[in-house]
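Hi everyone,

Forwarding the result from last night's run.
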Amino acid sequence: AAIKKEKFSEYQTQRDDNSVKLSYYYKFTGGDYIAKNLTFGLRVRGKRKRKSEFSDLLSIEARILSLPPRGVRAIVFKDRIEISWNPAEKNIDQSSPAYFKGYNIYRAEEEGLHLRINSKLVNERKYDDKDFIIGKVYRYFVRASAAELPPFSESDDSEVVRILARDTFPPATPTGLVSIAAENFISLSWDENPEEDLGGYRVWRKMEGQEEYVLLTQQPIRENAYNDTAVEKNKRYYYAITAQDRLGNESPKSESVSEVIK
C-alpha cells in the first residue's frame, strides 16, 4: 500500500516538536483471514520516485479470532458491580468451536475512554468490578482473547452495557432491642448499627390486639435509645426498630419486645 504525503494526517496518532507517529491498519477481506504469516516493512519514496531501503521487517502470524462475547449484563451489588456474558460459539470465519483463552473487560465513566480493568486474563464468564463509586454511570464491554499474555489477540468489542451504580441497599436490621418500664414511660435501647451512611432509626409501636405497627418517630433519630411517654398503665405495648440510611433505604423491622406499665 502507498500512503501519499497529503494523506499522512489520516494515519497520524502522535506528534511533537521532533517526530510524528503514524499507524497503519491492514484489513482482511473475504476469506483472507485464514491462518498465515504476514511480513510488513516500510520504505520512503522521494519526489524523484527514488525509494529508500526497507525498514526492519516485522513478521506477524495472523490468527482466526473468536467472534465477540454476547449477552453482556451488569448488576450492582453493595460491594461490587458484577459483569457477566455468554461466550461466542463461532470464530470470525464461522468455524467452531470459538477459539479463545479468556476475556478482557473494558470500562468507561460517562462518555470517557474505555480502559481495561482486569490485571490478568479472566477465565470465568463473569467479573467483579470492586473499584466503583455510588452515583456514577459506567459503561462496559468485553473482548475474547486468543493470547494469555500481552499483546492480546482480541475479538471485536461486545455490545456495550450501561449501568448507574445506585445505592438500593438498606442497613442491617437493628439488634439487641430491650425495653424497661418506668413509672410513666417505657424506655427502649438497642445496639448501634455499623454503617457509615446510616441516617438514623425509626421506632414502631403497636398495642395488644393490633395487627399493624404505627410509626412513633416521623423523622429518623440518631440515638440508639428512645423513651415512649405516650403510654397508659395496664396496657401492653409492642415495639420494633428499623434503620434507615441517608438515601432512605430502610432495613426490615427488628425482633419485637413488649412492655406494660403496672
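The chain has a mean pLDDT of 91.

Cheers,
N.
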